[in-house]
Amino acid sequence: MSPIRARRPKRGEGEGHCYRELRRALLEGRLVPGQRLVETELVRMFGVGRAAVRTALARLEQEGVVERALNRGARVRLLTEEEAVEILEARAALECLAVRYAALRARAEDVQVLREILRESAECARTGDLLGYSERNGRFHQELTRISGHATVARLLDSLRTQMVRYQYRTVMAPGRVERSLQEHRAIVTAVASRDPDAAEAAMRVHVGGVLEALRHVARRTAAAAVP
Amino acid sequence: MSPIRARRPKRGEGEGHCYRELRRALLEGRLVPGQRLVETELVRMFGVGRAAVRTALARLEQEGVVERALNRGARVRLLTEEEAVEILEARAALECLAVRYAALRARAEDVQVLREILRESAECARTGDLLGYSERNGRFHQELTRISGHATVARLLDSLRTQMVRYQYRTVMAPGRVERSLQEHRAIVTAVASRDPDAAEAAMRVHVGGVLEALRHVARRTAAAAVP
DNA sequence: CGGGGCATGATTGTTCACAATAAAGTTGAC
DNA sequence: GTCAACTTTATTGTGAACAATCATGCCCCG
C-alpha cells in the first residue's frame, strides 16, 4: 500500500515499532475499519519480520482494535453502535476518575497547558474548523489524563480512545455540538484550576453525558440514512 | 516445572491455549509475581511452539499481567502498593457502571444465582473459611458483570481482576472485613433484585470503598512489618 | 443456464536453525 | 583478596522454509 517505509528498525524494536506504527496509522485514519491486515504486506510496509508483525497484531487484538479469525487473518475491528456506546460509557466512568485526580494534582503549568488548548479550540470553533477542533478535543482529554498521574486509568483510556477513533470526529459534527463541547471543557478547566475534585468530576460527567447524547444522535441519523 | 501437560493442542489453538493456561496458572497462584517465564520452559509445559508462547506473552503484557524486558524475557509483573490502589480505583469506577446495568437487566434467575452465592459466602464466613470466601467473592463480582451484559466493561474488569490476583485474598484477611463485605454484598443484591440502578451503584460504591480501605490497611501493616 | 466438486493460489500457523544479547562464571594481574 | 577483562552459557530476537487451511476460479454435469 505505502511502499515508503521508515528505516529498518534495529534488533529488539521490531515488534514495538510495528505496534506503534500500526496504531498511528489507525489513529490517523489511514486504516479503515473492516480493512484486512495481511501479514506480508505489513512486513513490506514496516520492514520488520513476520514474527514481529504477528505479535504486534496479537497485542492490538488484546487491545480490542483488531480482530483475528483463525486461518483468516486480522482486520481492523468494526464497531457496532452498541459497542461504541459501551466504550464511551466505560470512558466516561474512567475519565471522571481521571479528572478527579487531575484536579488534585494539577500544577500551575498544567493549567496553563489546558488553557492554551482551550484557546486553540475556541479559534477552531470560531473559524468552523471541525477537524482541528476534533484534534484539540483529543489533546485536551489526553492532557487531562496525563495530569492525573494515574497510570492505570491512563492506559485504559488510551486503549478505549484508540478504539473510538472512527466515531471521535463524527460526534462533534452534530449541529451546535462544538459550542456546547467548548463550554463544557471550560467548566472542567475551571474546576481543575481551583483544585476542586468534586466540581471537576461533575463537570466531566456533564461533558461525557453530552458526548454520549451526540453519539446517539449521530447513530440515529446514520441508521435513518441507511434505511431510506 | 510441571511436566504434566494437557494434550497437544491442534493447529490454530496453540496461542490461545497457552494464553488461557498461563492466565489460569496465574489466577490459581501457581505463578508468583516476579517469577521468570522462560519461553522454552513454557513450550515444554504446554506443548506448543515457541511462537505461540511468544504471542501469548505479548498479549499478557498488553493486559498488564506480565512485563517483558528487551532480551531479558518475561516475568510475572509485581505490583507496587500504589499500582494496586490504582487498579482497585479503576475497578471501582467500572464495577459501579456494571452493577447499574446489572440492576437494569437482571432476570429472576440471575438474582437466584446471586442469592445462592450469597448463601455460600455466608457459610464460608460462618466457618471461617477465608479462602472459600475469597473465591465466592470473586464469583460474585464476575456474575454481576455477566448479568450486566456490558461486554466492554466485562473485558476491562476481567483484565483488572487478573492483575489484582495477589492482593485479592489478602484484603479479606483484615479483621472483621468478611462480615462487612458480606453485608455490603447483600445490599448490592437487594438493590439489583429491586431493579434500582441508583441504589445498586450506591451500594457498590460503599463496597469498593470498603475494599480500598481494607487494602490500604493491609498495605500499611505489610509496610510496618517490613520495617521492624 | 445453474450448481456442486475439484484444482489452484493466497495466506496463515508452525517449526527449526541461527545470530545477538545479557547474565554468570573464570581467569589473571595487582 | 579483589577487581577487571574475558569466556562461557543461557535465553531471546529474527529469518527462512514448510504445512495446513481458506478463498477463488474453473470445469463438468445436470
Write the layout of secondary structure elements.
The structure is a homodimer of 228-residue chains.
Chain A: H1 14-27, E1 36-37, H2 39-46, H3 50-63, E2 66-69, E3 73-76, H4 81-105, H5 108-127, H6 130-148, H7 151-163, H8 165-171, H9 177-193, H10 197-226
Antiparallel strand pairs in A: 1-3, 2-3
Helix pairs in contact in A: 1-3, 4-6, 4-7, 4-9, 4-10, 5-6, 5-9, 6-7, 9-10
The structure holds a DNA duplex (30 and 30 nucleotides).
Description:
The structure is a homodimer of 228-residue chains. Chain A has 228 residues and is mainly alpha-helical. The first copy, chain A, is built from ten helices and three strands; from the N terminus they run H-E-H-H-E-E-H-H-H-H-H-H-H. Chain A has helices at residues 14-27, 39-46, 50-63, 81-105, 108-127, 130-148, 151-163, 165-171, 177-193, 197-226; strands at residues 36-37, 66-69, 73-76. A three-stranded antiparallel sheet of chain A has the order 1-3-2. In chain A, a hairpin with a 3-residue loop joins strand 2 and strand 3. In chain A, helix 5 runs antiparallel to helix 9. The radius of gyration of chain A is 19 Å and the shape is globular. The model of chain A has no long low-confidence stretch (mean pLDDT 90). Chains A and B meet through helix 3, helix 4 and helix 7 of A and helix 3, helix 4 and helix 7 of B.
